[in-house]
Every structure is written in structure tokens, then in C-alpha cells.
Specification:
Helix content: 25-40%
Structural class: alpha/beta
Distance between the termini: 28 Å
Shape: elongated
Number of domains: 2
Strand content: 15-25%
Order of helices and strands: EEHHHHEEHEEHEEHHEHEH
Number of helices: 10
């Protein structure tokens, strides 16, 4: 369900992939931005825009790729690329630590009933944390899209790294949730955040949809820009300053009381080497999560 939330000087547009897709109907955004959104959608694929839309000629084509057919060429390439990244041995196995009760003749807590009954071999209780393999959920966010000067070919790697991380984690027993993030600074202290659940933890990974949103220039420049209009603030004509890196993380932390928690935010990647660097760091972070996670 699409939610438009106001938290202090920050607005948040959040929901699932279908809710993001619904923003192609300008009536689904606040009235203050409807006219600009309609103009943006009319320009998708226009040669005059001088922006790389990845071969798309209209917003309707972007909608077909994102909501129906998926980005098959991107998914096929991802299937070829992921095994060549050399990271399969680095994915930590999922485990959770659960307190288990143990009874013995000595321990942490005296069980009075057992002692009165003379069962001294079980009169004390100890609770121990023991690791057990189980499907622990991890929520991964990443900013989707990129600046107007980035090409379709460069954006592919941003989608590839999200798909690869999900594939690696779920192959090691984790349940992965994938969330597309975006934050724009509109000036005068006003921030607009987008937080879209592309894959729930219990859903199978759809490579074609994941690659479409995170890695297809035309899909992002349709839906990401539409999401930037889903706010009660007037969106600046240039869309506002895009927040990345620590600025993005800070914007997400500032609204952490009104959106579900994230386990980690993957930095954007626009090359193979950057994707591999990000994935190695992410796997190290997830390895630390596997210790002391409550079952």
C-alpha cells in the first residue's frame, strides 16, 4: 500500500513495487506536483532530452518492463555475470543464537521445586546461547538510479550488485529483503525520501524486475522521477540535490522511527570493480550480523 508520510521536515513515499508503478497516474501524487509529473512522463524517451533511457521510447514501455515483462536482457546478463564475480565462498552462513535451557546439579539459578523434591541433579538451570542454522532475514537497501550524466550501461552494475547480493545471501541460508532508496534535498531543510520494497524476505528473487528498477536507466528515469513527485512539498524543477553515501544514510536514519529498519545500505556501483568492492564489504557486514542474532 502506498504511504505518503510526513516526519518533521522530511516526507517519505513508501510501499511495494506495485505502489511505485501506480505513480505513473499523476492523480496518485499530491496535486501540487501533478502537472510537473505529467510533463516528465510525456518527455520519457524524447530525443530532445539528451538523457539515456536505455532504448525506451515512452513511459508505457518503462511500465511494461517494470510491471510485466521484466528486463530480460539485464536478467540474462546478470545470470552470466554473477558466477564470475568470485564471491560465492565469501557468503556467511545464516545462523541465529537462541537461549536454550539446561538443567544440572550446578548452574546459574536454583530451581526450588526440584531441590525440595530432592532432584539435585536437575536443581539448577542455566540458559546458554547456542548457534543454530535457520533462515534469518536481512534487509538490504540501495539507492536506485543515478545522475543524469550516467549511461544505461553504467547503471546496469547497480542492479547487478543488488541481485548478486540477494543470490549470495539466499544461497547461504538467509532470507533477503531488497529495498530501493532515494533521497532528495529540496532546500530550506526539506528532504524527500523514497523507500520501495522490491522483494520481500519470503519472496523468490525476480532477476528481471530487480535489474529493471536498480539497473535500467529508462525505468529509473520514469519511476524514480515519478516517486520524487510523491510529496506534499513542491518538487524543484531540477528534482533537488540527490543525496548519496553518508548523506543518504543520514536521511534514512532520521526517518528510522517511521520506516522498517534496514540491516545495511549498499553504496551505488556503476562499474564491475565498484560492484565487487561493495559486495565484499556487504558480505563482511552480514557476517557480523550472524553473531548474536535473536531467533
Amino acid at each position: 500500500m502506498l504511504n505518503l508520510i510526513r516526519h518533521e521536515q522530511t516526507t517519505i513515499a513508501t510501499g511495494g513495487a506495485a505502489d511505485l508503478a501506480a505513480l505513473l497516474d499523476p492523480t496518485n501524487v499530491p496535486e501540487i506536483n501533478r502537472g510537473e509529473l505529467a510533463n516528465d512522463l510525456a518527455r520519457v524517451g524524447s530525443p530532445e532530452s539528451r538523457i539515456d533511457y536505455g532504448g525506451l521510447a515512452s513511459a508505457a514501455e518503462a511500465a511494461r518492463i517494470f510491471t510485466d515483462a521484466g528486463w530480460q536482457d539485464g536478467a540474462d546478463r546478470a545470470r552470466r555475470e554473477i558466477p564470475t564475480l568470485g564471491l560465492s565462498d565469501l557468503a556467511p552462513e545464516a545462523s541465529a543464537r537462541k537461549r536454550r535451557r539446561a538443567f544440572a546439579e550446578d548452574g546459574d539459578t536454583l530451581r526450588v521445586d526440584a531441590a525440595l523434591a530432592g532432584n539435585w541433579d536437575r536443581a539448577y538451570e542455566t540458559r546458554q546461547k547456542r548457534a543454530s542454522r535457520m533462515p534469518v532475514a536481512v534487509s538490504v537497501g540501495c539507492a536506485f538510479g543515478g545522475n543524469a550524466n550516467l549511461s544505461h550501461a553504467e547503471m546496469f552494475w547497480n542492479g547487478l550488485q543488488m541481485a548478486a547480493l540477494c543470490d549470495l545471501l539466499e544461497g547461504a541460508g538467509w532470507r533477503a529483503e531488497l529495498r530501493a532508496l532515494k533521497a532528495n534535498d529540496f532546500g530550506r531543510g526539506r528532504i524527500h525520501v523514497q523507500d520501495w520494497v522490491v522483494k520481500q524476505a519470503d519472496q523468490p528473487l525476480r532477476l528481471d524486475t530487480t535489474l529493471a528498477l536498480f539497473g535500467h536507466a529508462g525505468v529509473y528515469r520514469t519511476f524514480g522521477w515519478a516517486g520524487n513527485k510523491a510529496t506534499e512539498f513542491k518538487t524543484p524543477s531540477n528534482g533537488g540535490d540527490v543525496l548519496t553515501g553518508e548523506a543518504l544514510a543520514r536521511a534514512i536514519r532520521n526517518v528510522s522511527s517511521v520506516i522498517p529498519p534496514l540491516s545495511l545500505i549498499l553504496p551505488q556501483a556503476y562499474s564491475r570493480s565498484a560492484a565487487i568492492t561493495n559486495l565484499r564489504a556487504a558480505l563482511r557486514t552480514v557476517a557480523t550480523l550472524s553473531h548474536g542474532v535473536a531467533a
